[in-house]
Amino acid sequence: MTALKEELKRQIIEVLHLEDITPADIQDEEALFGEGLGLDSIDALELIVLMDKTYGIKLADPKKGRDIFQSIDTMVAYISEHRTK
């Protein structure tokens, strides 16, 4: 699970072009949107594409994304349970 967290953090930084941020800067339980990492709705779309391309997870219901993308911990839990790649 720790390897998946590190991989996911690196992918988020790369896909969202988060300059000056390292995987160590992103706390596992920190909010990704709002006051936490400060991501926005465009970033959410990029995360949906990332989940599809990298893990074979298609999010048909955007409301589910709100729960899945709360933190690295919630994303890793969802990926571990639903990945097809």
Automatic annotation (TrEMBL):
Residue ranges occupied by any Carrier domain in the UniProt entry: 1-83
Pfam families: PP-binding
Coiled coil regions, renumbered to chain: none
Domain of life: Bacteria
PROSITE patterns, A to Z: CARRIER, PHOSPHOPANTETHEINE
UniProt entry tagged with the keyword Iron: no
Ranges that cross the membrane: none
Protein name: Acyl carrier protein
Lineage, broadest ranks: Bacteria, Pseudomonadati, Bacteroidota, Sphingobacteriia, Sphingobacteriales
